[in-house]
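Notebook entry, structure prediction.
Reason for the run: the old model in the group folder had no record of what sequence produced it. Starting over properly, with the input documented here first.
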Amino acid sequence: KFNTKKVYLLGMFITCALNFLLAMNMSYTFAIFIWAGLAVAGLILYFPAHTKLVRLVGDEESQGTIFGFTESACGLASVIINFIALGLYAKVAVGAMGGVAGLKAVIISYGAVGLIATIALVFLLPDPEKEGKGQDGGDSGQETKLSMKEWAGVFKDPRTWFAGIAVFATYSTYQTLSYFTPYFTNVLGATVVGSGAIAIIRTYGIRIVGAPLGGYMGDRIHSVSSVIATVLACGAVITLIFMFMPAGVPSVLLTVMTLVIGFMVHIARGAMFAVPSEVKIPRRYAASTAGVVCAIGFCPDLFQAAMYGHWLDTCGNAGYTRIFIYIIAIMVVGVINGVATVVYKKKYVATGLVPVEGGTEAAQAQ
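New structure, fully documented this time:
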């Protein structure tokens, strides 16, 4: 509806400003309002615009690779910035204020890094409209703004839901990986240090390699949905094996299996945002589609951690069994969704006969 670059930069600027405000007042009540503001800046402004701008980088046949390398770059940046923040925290967290002072320094540093990036992107980030691509990402240079009817059509389009469920299954699995670490220590008897080291490598290290590989594989076989379905199927099998492992399992085996499932998840993460391109959702709907996909895909943040915590509080270590059963079911849903996406694409998208309101896209184009 609006200039994508301006929405993108506005979301970044608000995020930075909220960091500085939080550092000035770190009370619990104020922090709640800050987190609400971060949700608006991040999920309403920044991320849909980010997804659209990334999609405009290259043609539709290389979207998996583009999103994969973007995810990899985010992982590399996370490693660098978080190590800097960790060093800053250790240096400032002294005296009477201790950890509070260190945390405040980290929050300010995040705001400062973000502000520098925002200013740099004012000059470095191309404006799709000024480059003759318009809001639709085409070459006509015409700014065709979406109507409310078109936006409602995006929400009702089954292709949007295929993409959203792919993100939901992948993101749910990604969030669950953090529970493998306490499971190893509390149930399987692994050392805390060893589990922590595995967690760092799984969260950041293999993301740098796995994400671009997933996108590249999707482009090579012309189906990121097939890649996502395959790796989620493998992840479900590995998780099922974890459930029946006895205590005292060799740490080497745990390490290998954990890194493998982490690698699988990051392959899926590198491919998941390229699903709209695979099913040929027009570029002019990219930001609207990304918004709906984010609402579907990231909704585990609303309930998953609380649900897992409740299971662990009420069932103890047996709660991990419930967690594993749940996430296996979610991965199976992701596999079914991937297969359904491929079938739908062959039936409708490949022929240009995608069902939309008022006929088919092919008919409307004519």
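Summary: Residues 139-143, 356-360, 362-366 have pLDDT under 50 and may be disordered.
The old model has been moved to the deprecated folder.
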